[in-house]
Amino acid sequence: MAEDKHIEITEKCLDESIDAFFKSAPPLQDLDNITKKLENFVAQHSVHSESQNTKKVVCVTSGGTTVPLERRCVRYIDNFSSGHRGASSTEYFLKAGYMVIFLHRRGTAQPFCRFLPENPILECFEPSDDSGIQVCSPYAEAVKSAIQEHKSAVNSGYFLQLDFTTLFEYLQILQVITLAINRLGAYGMFYLAAAVSDFYVPWDSMTEHKIQSGPGGLAMQLAPVPKMLTLLRKRWAPVAFCVSFKLETDIDILLKKAESARRKYGVHAVVANELSTRKEKVIVVTDQSQTVIEKKGVGMDVEEPLIDFLIKEHAAYTFHQSHFVAKTSEL
Amino acid sequence: MAEDKHIEITEKCLDESIDAFFKSAPPLQDLDNITKKLENFVAQHSVHSESQNTKKVVCVTSGGTTVPLERRCVRYIDNFSSGHRGASSTEYFLKAGYMVIFLHRRGTAQPFCRFLPENPILECFEPSDDSGIQVCSPYAEAVKSAIQEHKSAVNSGYFLQLDFTTLFEYLQILQVITLAINRLGAYGMFYLAAAVSDFYVPWDSMTEHKIQSGPGGLAMQLAPVPKMLTLLRKRWAPVAFCVSFKLETDIDILLKKAESARRKYGVHAVVANELSTRKEKVIVVTDQSQTVIEKKGVGMDVEEPLIDFLIKEHAAYTFHQSHFVAKTSEL
């Protein structure tokens, strides 16, 4: 009883801090457009929902969020993330037949383009003899397949791209997505690979103009970002299958933090990765097990076995939800 | 006499803080390679130095620097800059016959590519009927000229591209460039358009691992970045023509700060720009005048008249240096 009360109070505090966050955030410019895109996208799922192979929908988040330090933003804190994890995972989800909402940081890695150099337009092309342009020979295949596969994914209608830069944009768009995915019940999935800021400067307390430099340096006070994951799991999309990520540079605290995050937020799996080995190996922490997943060889992606593993977990979860939960509710 | 002593002490303090900065900075990975590239590049200048039209060399810096908050960097503070100013200015310097060292933030705007969309490889190309790829028609001319003009600049040998991400990289590479440009006397120029951090976390006091989040938020103490511009002007390349930039969001303090920077660092010109109007208008502050420079029309660049103005100032300066200074030293 006393514990229940404690949980209630904690949730109330969280609600208040999240309310304050959203109220103080600069409003999203194209919210209506994003909502419409999401409605159309999710509507396609219902076309398939009567058939035997019901389409599943995953929201993959990718890249880091920025936290502005000034309202007319000159300086900001950024979280390092190339977006390669999210981009390659999106490819494997699409190959497995999932519909993918790819919520990514503007300018980060795109699916099917991972094998191109950093600046493909200047590095992969050259002037041709007939005063046109041509692809430089070592990149011929990579450029062709990047453009063809990306376009084919977009044209299929099963791949929706949405982008963000700031933490404010990210969390507002994510909330709209959760509401859309919630309609799909257990067929919906979240794969939250974006590197989200833990600290921010509340819009209310942010300086209007560029911070002036003084001889003594700069003292900054950042507020903790309210933990939206709790709300996502408990209210926004409580039945969707939810995978979160934990990145640490210190291997000693990684697994402890991953397990603690799994319990705290009630997510179905936490992908634990260590900064220096994250491209070779991850550990998936569920309530049943800790599974080490490694890439199969040189030139292979760790995301291939990772997505394979998670899709099986999601299938088991969907089966469980539709059979056992349905039966329980019949009783 | 007392004032001289004050200046001496101030310079000593600056020297010490700059020494401390460079000593504590992580060493540049490819310093030898960069030094060699610069030597070869500047050596070309001497080929022309006997002829009537002596080539001038400008170092254009572009984009913002990052300041890591952790050694194994997950979070960093970034300075907003698309790099468009530096990229377009580089084009006009090249057109005017300058040799350009383009020191830019990795991933920011490239000369000749300014009219392409953000993600040109996916937005400008499409699969063709013969299962190859082709340029989407609205971009046909922009893509062709971007690739041709960029390649032609690189092949001319008058365009050297060097890149940075962190403040530590930027300042170390800039120092090496100043030493190379210093050999050219008044024919050298600096056009410092990069958005350089005013504050940083000294490497020594930086945490090794990812900063852990706590319920109470995060207090950060940043140190002021030592003002390298003083050293650049007084020691590293004292005869080179030097243009610095001042960006503010508050128009009321902009001109005051620009004039104060001109005096403090002894630069030949300060380009003052206000964040919201910087693409239409700048004010060039010299010891003679404050000149408002505006773009000539829709679809035109403010950098065109700006570079034109600065090239004339540089020509007058070179003329003055070679005639009057030479004569004075003969006396």
Automatic annotation (TrEMBL), chains A, B:
Pfam families named in the record: DFP
Residue ranges annotated for the DNA/pantothenate metabolism flavoprotein C-terminal domain, each copy included: 184-297
Organism of provenance: Picea sitchensis
SUPFAM superfamilies xrefs: CoaB-like
Family statement: Belongs to the PPC synthetase family.
An example Gene Ontology molecular-function term: catalytic activity
Record-given protein name: DNA/pantothenate metabolism flavoprotein C-terminal domain-containing protein
Domain of life assignment: Eukaryota
Cross-referenced InterPro entries: CoaB-like_sf, DNA/pantothenate-metab_flavo_C
Gene Ontology terms: biological process: coenzyme A biosynthetic process
PANTHER family: CORNICHON-RELATED
